[in-house]
Each structure stands twice: as structure tokens, then as C-alpha cells.
Amino acid sequence: MKIFKRVLLTVVILAAGIYCGKLIFGRGSDIPAPMPTYFSQSTEPGDSVGIGAGTITGKIIEVKKGNSIQEAVGKASPGDLIRIYPGVYNETVYIDKDNISIQGVIENDEWPILDGQKKMNDAILYSGNGVLIENMKITNYKGNAIMGQAGNNYVIRNNWIVDTGVYGIFPQFGKNGVVERNILTGIEDAAIYIGMCDNVDVRFNEVYGNVAGIEIENSRHALVEFNYTHDNTGGILAFLTQGLPIKTCYDVIIRNNYVYNNNTKNFGAVGSTVSHIPAGTGILIMAADDITVENNIISGNDNAGITITDYAFAGVDHASDPESEPNSDRITLLDNFMSNNGNNPIADVKALMATQFSKLGPDIIAVGGGIGSCVINPSRYRTFGLNSYANCQVRDTRSIKTYLLDKPVMPRVTAQIEKGKMTYYGVCSGCHAFSTRLVGPPVNVIQALYKNNPQGIVDFIAHPIHKRDDYPEMPPQNYLTEETRKAVAEYMLSITK
What we know:
This protein is α/β, with parallel strands linked by helices. The protein folds into 3 domains: 21-152, no CATH class; 166-407, Pectate Lyase C-like, CATH 2.160.20.10; 416-494, Orthogonal Bundle (Cytochrome Bc1 Complex, Chain D, domain 2), CATH 1.10.760. Helices cover 16% and strands 28% of the residues. The chain is built from 8 helices and 34 strands. It has a 13-stranded parallel beta sheet, covered by helices on one side. Strands 4-7-10-13-16-19-22-25-28-31-33 form an 11-stranded parallel beta sheet. Helix 5 (419-428) packs across helix 8. The radius of gyration is 25 Å and the shape is globular. The relative contact order is 0.09.
């Protein structure tokens, strides 16, 4: 009996010691590393071709409440994991290194929170390749939650983003990326904005209470799948914006999404591209080509379920960028479930539908130019403008599982002579098109203000001053070197389209 009591006492002391040790030292050892993303569709056992973001080959750096995430990034080397514990972090994080993973740790429903206090512009900016960002709550910024600046092979997943200004998740000029399982709300432009990217999967996200839910702009080879986009002004958008360096938007599949009740009043910045989206827009396609819409549930959108348009009908001046082809060509509308759309259409749509003796808006409306489009069984829907659409020969897109490439793409190598151009593509063009207002003033307006004065732009980039009430405040880009700022200033003053 005495032996049993001694054994029991030893077990109790050992358990108490382990418990106290976890309280004092944390419990990091049982937290799993991020799941690596395999940029490959191979099913062969042991095939590791294409291991990308989230592959940890270095050390783990822990950041706890009261510490700085940016200091951890400064100490990190490629292949390292930065693990962030619950707490509130008031900072902007710049990741300019390759293969860095940011992993939030959620404990007892407590998140690590990046809070900009409505004073800071950006939460996370990355220009490195192979960057992973997961399990972060981001709120109260004025510009962006997560913005990519020409980084390839990115993975952005399982983040909770609330009221972060202009954009939520915004990879720009990147290739081979995944945006998945995020929740975003309260964004005044686009919650998920895929800008000038190639080979992107956007899947399993929930976006609500934004102006634009998911926006595929001037991008190619994008799969938008299994998303729940509801109570935005517009649910899912695919369009070509003129005045940007990339002049095409094509090969986008929008399938298996729930696009519901996108009737929120438009609260975008006056004059911005998205400020013209009518409330009640389910899916909008403008001047984009080779877009497939398949197997979505599109319901309760008061203006129209699917709107297909060209520049002219949308009021865009094509003459200012003749290289951007203005029509929506080769649109493929496969089986979709559509109901209860068009209950309160805008005046222009109401007038068009009146020609068909209907007081309701359409499930599908196509206006303007365009060639080569088709639809399956249009009589199922209330439509306008589909008379020229053929019967689709293709029935589904099941052969396409992903648009990710078989293996990671190489990092961009920028020659010195190209530095200004690449910086404009990767950093500036998300807000500044040549002759079209996006967020900030068009480039041709900037050229008039700073003619023969590149140093003025260099100084403004680092320390912007809010001068015009009709534009939002520009975030400082003082993390760019003086040399880089000068290169991009000279490039912006030299371009003509």
C-alpha cells in the first residue's frame, strides 16, 4: 500500500510539474508547423516535386505579446517560421525575404491581432517569394491587410480580416498563389483583389459586407471556387481595367460558389472603379475573355445574377487605352442554379427589361460587344442580350483541378535597368493606372504635377502629405530604398500609356 501511495504521489507531482511548466514556458512544442503547399498535382507516393510556401527548413522564431513581429522578420532567414502568439500587435510588417512563413497561434479562441488603430495604412506587405501567412486577425488599417508586391509562390490562408481600408488580401503582380479559407468584411474596395497575377486559386473564402467580394483584375489563369460571397455590393468580379501595365484578363473559372444577396449599398471611394458597381450585382464580367461560369448558386441579387458588359456600356473611355480590348469575348455559361434575382434593378437595366415586358431584372444580362460566347439551356433563366450566344459544346470544367503550376516558379530577377518598371508594376500600379482612376490619382495627373521633378516624387513616396480631399491618404512607402524610389519616379514620368 505504501508503494502504491508513493507511486501515486510521484505521478501527481510529475503532472503538476508539467502543467506548471506549460504555464510558465508555453506549449509551443505541440503546435504543428504549417502544412506545406505542394505546387503539383502528382499522386505518386513520395513525390515532393513542387514543395512551396510553408516548407520549414530553418528555425522557429516565437513572437509573444509585447514583442515585435517586424523584429522577428529582421532576424529571420529563408526557411524560417515566425510563430505569433495571441495578443495585440500595433505595427506594419514588411517581408522582403524569400521563404518566410508567418503562423498565428490561436489558443482558447484568442487570436494574434494586428491592429492598425485607424492610424497605420498597411498590416503586412511582402515582396519575398514563397511567403506564407496564416491564422492572423487583422483590423483597423487604412490601406491593406495583406498586400503582395511581385512575390511569387504565395499562400494566404485562414486569416480573419475586418475593416482594413481599401483592400483586404491583395496579391499584385505575382505568379503561382493560393488564397483560401479566409474571412473578410468591411472593405471599401475589394475584399480579395487578385491584381495582374497568373496561376491563382481563390477558394473556400467567405466575403461579406464589402463593396467587391472577390475581384480578378487584369489576371490570367485564375480559379475561383467554393467561396461564399454574400451581402456585398458585388459578389464576384472579373474585368479588365485600362491603363494598367498588363493589358489582358482571361482564362478565369468561376464555379461552385454561393453568390447570395449582394445588395449592400456601394460605399466605395467616389470616382474609383468599384464605386460604379450597382448594388445587387451577383457576378460581373467586364472586358474579360474566356471566362467560364459553372455550377454556382446565384440567388437574391437585386440588380442581376450575372452581368456581362463591355467598356462602352460601363461608361469607360476606351480611347484612353486602345491596347485594352474593350469587349467580353468567349464567355461560357454552363449549368448554374439561379433564383430570386433582379427584384430591384437599376434604371438602365429596368429600361432594357421593359422591352421584354418585364418589371424584374434578369438572372443574366449581356450588353455591348463580344464574340464567341455560349450558354447552356438559357430558357431556364430570365435573360437579356443572349440572342447571339451559341449552345455550349463543353459541358463542364472538371478536368481542371487547379491553376497552380506543377512546381514553384523562379523568383523574379530584376536587372538594375528594370528596377523602376518592376517597382511600378509590383507596388504602384494597384492604385495608380495611367489614365484611369483606381484609388490614387492617375499617372498622367502625377506627370503634370511633377514634370521634370522626379525628386519631388521620390520625397512624396517616402513622406506623403494628404493634399486632396477627393482621394484617400497615400501610405508611406519609406521601406523602399532611395535608389528604388528614384528609379520608379523616373519610370512613372517616362511612360505614355
